[in-house]
Amino acid sequence: MRGFVPRLVGIGVVFLTVSPGWSQGTGELGVGYVWQSSRGSKESFASQYALDSGLFLAGISLDLRSWSPGYSRLSLEASGFGAEPFGRARFVAAWDQEWRLELGFTRRERFFSLPSWDFGQRREAWTIERWDGRLVYEGFSWARMQLSVRDVRRHGWLSGPFYGLGRPYVGEGRLAQELREAFFSVESKGLPVRLLLEQGVSHARRHTSMRPGNGGSPADGEDPDTLDGLRSSGDDKSTSPVTRLLASWESGRWDVGVEGLYRKDHGIAERAGWERYALGEGAWGSLAFADALKGQVEGTVKKAEARVGLDVGRGFSLVVRGGSERSERDSVLLGSRFVVLTGPGGGVEIPVVADDNGFFDVRDRFSVVEARYRAQGFGLAVFRNWNSRDVRWQLGRETSAQGPERDGDGWGVVASFWSGGTFSGELGGERGSFERYVFRIEPQSTKRAWAKLAYTPREGVELGASMRTESSDNPSSVAGLAYDSRDLAVSATLHWQAGGWLGVSFSRLELSSDVGIQFFAPALTPGVSSYRLQVNNAAVRGFWPLAPRWELEGGYTLVKDTGRTLPFVAHNGDLQVSWKSSPTLIWSLFANVYSFDEDRANNEDFDVRRFGVVCRWRF
Amino acid sequence: MLAILVVAASLVPVKPPASSGGFVGSMTCATCHEDVTQRFNAGPHGRAMAAVRGDALARACEGCHGPGEAHAANPTGNNIQRLAPNAPEVARACGSCHQGRDQDLQRRTPGHGRAVVSCLACHQSGHQPAMAEHLLAAPEDALCGGCHPTERSEFLLPFAHRETRTEPMACTACHGVHQSQANAMGLSAEPGKRCASCHAEKAGPFTYPHSPVEASGCIRCHRPHGSPNPQLLVRRDPGSLCLECHVATPPFHDLTKASFRQCQACHSAVHGSQRSPKLFEE
After folding, report:
1. Closest Cβ opposite residue B208 in set A49, A291, A395
2. Interface test with B, best of A495, A517, A560 (most B CBs within 10 A)
């Protein structure tokens, strides 16, 4: 609710300012109020949906055409805020048939806390706000120019674990982060070769500060060594200028495109921290750690890609694609660390100079050759691809340098078929294999197959079905990876002439993953990390115009996981009945239900009911 | 071998379009197709054409359907380009004004090209009332979800990238279908760079990066659309996720003790750290 009224007033001022001038336009203004009651874990519900009681903006929209001399369009849309965790607003203005301005705003509130999930008592509540703007000029016959800006801010608090005196403690911190980007681009039009040149810069800034949580006790229980002082603050700043050039040319037969990107990253991170532990609750003295550090990261990203397509004739075409991306990053850390030990007999300070450096370089290359055939009602594509990845890294002087390389190749085939506008389908399969591993959980071979069908037996009836299966593995000498995934989905949508529609869908996702692991318990023990998912998902949604002044809209979703890792049942539903009391005024009553039920525990289960009313004024 | 094939192939003539003869203008088309012409001109596509270039509307019909002289003289279905949704002529017709958009699609999402997904699979021609912005045939989630139903249903899982109560986040917020619509930062092949446009703090650059994040991006550990697991993780238990890569942990990491079963309890800077090579602190 915080900030809802000022935002609503702001939107209303824009609304009333622009409204009187229109010559042709439509609009709507809707405000609602919702009451929420819940049983079970409120924090679990908030972690999934973050909905609340209160006032909210059901929707505001204004679409004006030729609203003032020279102006061709002006529109405003907004919804959410208040009791909704997500709010958005969008403003578009176009004038003189040459200029177009778009402004957008979104706001999302996020809460997370699941006591049973995280031993370290992780909790977080933050808000992320995004502004974006775009100014487009179409006045030149040969080019289109665009200036884009974006500002993303996140603020809030979090508490979570941090490594203290040989064990985890709890820290609480505040977040203040922002990302600003600006891009200018020129795109040719009407020229034989299409060119796009874009220059942008991105700047990110982040500030964090921490203080002790959990009363200074370790996260795993009471301990005589308590955290009695923690001050930690950090400032990160990074700037990344980026240049992109794209050129493409197309004739009736040839299609050629090239693209290049160059980005430079410059990051500075400053850290100042001080933490003190009272040993034996202070009886034995204290141990403190302090640091003042500065890290610097310099990096570049170079990317190039090319594509050549040739229409061979008689329905055949060839496509060759290739590309390379290379990112290099070097880091340096300088500063001082101190260990201060204070006992009954005095204290001792041990300074340690921090001087470290590292690097992380990745080079990816790929090439693809494709042959395609397209006839009346049928298409076939066969492709072969080769990939390579070279990764080199050393995270610090105390760690060893790594330099794994990975090569792979694969092939695939996709067949598609269609019959007028009534029937279409796609069958595909691909296979890839790799010789070496950057990380042990990467597959040696991957196989994938899929099928999709869509059928429209008559106007207003749409049926769809799809399935996909995927498996990957690697040898037991690496990780004994065995990954299998299958999914199936069917859907049907029915529209009828009165404007009503009904859609039903069902999907099933099965996933099993086994990876060989080793851990100490307390001796080295071999084991398997096993994960099983079997999610059935059924949904129905519809809209019924009951009578000339009455409308009904609703939906229901059931999600049931019967996999052995964490079986659960979740469902949610909504129903809204609307009454048009006059040609311009619509009243709606709505109800929502949300439920979550874990099979093996109940401390994160919830049942939530929401009831609300919305009033919409259309003009 | 490929070069020989390409050169030989380029000598084969390409099939000419169905329509032939000269241009007659939209007024001539309207004499028989008056309702179609009126609907198009009054619709968003017609209005946009009029706004960008006043004379474009005069040739709007033939801009997509090809020269209509032969058809006007002898109105049959065989001498005019009819533009079935999957016809190769669709990309050429749209590309005559929207230069390079089909090439962007082919390069950005080659799977769409292989499956013969043409402009009209997603966009309306402009003869019907507009259903969504950019003449999309349906709102984004329904449109993309029609061919990608698994991804669509993942948004219904307990933890998901949702907007409002149940609505999925817009697909194009992360997937730049047409290359020129994505800005240079969104262009990167690294999936993590797309996530970083909102989750900037996870992207660094870090003095001590976490290698899988740096090399493979966020999807190594997170499912981007939705997951039954908190934080969109690919495993319910974060500890087992870490152990799949980290098999050589120091011997004092005795997993019979609760504090060692949650790796994040100490190694909390899982996305990267500015001061700790062991990722103890951010």
Report:
1. A395
2. A517
Q: Which residues of A touch B198 (CB under 8 A)?
A: 128, 130, 152
Q: How far is A411 from chain B (nearest CA, A)?
A: 13
B22-27 long-range contacts, Cβ below 8 Å, gap at least 24? B22/B67, B22/B69, B23/B59, B23/B62, B23/B67, B23/B68, B23/B69, B24/B62, B24/B67, B24/B68, B24/B69, B24/B72, B25/B58, B25/B59, B25/B62, B26/B57, B26/B58, B26/B59, B26/B60, B26/B61, B26/B62, B27/B58
Mean pLDDT to the nearest integer, A520-549: 92
Please give the residue of chain B at the shortest CA–CA distance from A192. B99
User: Residue B186 carries which DSSP code?
Assistant: G
Q: Which residue of B has its CA nearest to A299?
A: B205
> How does strand A226-250 pair with strand A254-278?
antiparallel
SS3 helix, strand, coil % of chain A, rounded to 5?
Answer: 5, 75, 20
Q: Average pLDDT of chain B?
A: 79
pLDDT of A143-169, one tens digit each? Answer: 999 999 999 999 999 888 777 777 778
Q: What is the mean pLDDT of residues A45-68?
A: 86
Q: What is the mean pLDDT of chain A?
A: 88
**In this model, does residue A11 exceed pLDDT 70?**
no
Q: In angstroms, rounded to a whole number, what is the distance separating the alpha carbons of residues A64 and A66?
A: 7
Query: Could A369 and B277 be called an inter-chain contact, meaning their C-beta atoms sit closer than 8 Å?
Result: no
Exposed / middle / buried, residue A359 (Cβ in 10 Å: 0-12, 13-18, 19+): middle
Look at A318 and B261 and tell me if their CB atoms are within 8 Å. Answer: no
What's the pLDDT score for residue A139?
84
Contact call for residues A245 and A260 (beta carbons, < 8 A): yes
Whether ipTM exceeds 0.90: no
Listed residue (A523, A527, A488) closest to A505, CA to CA: A488
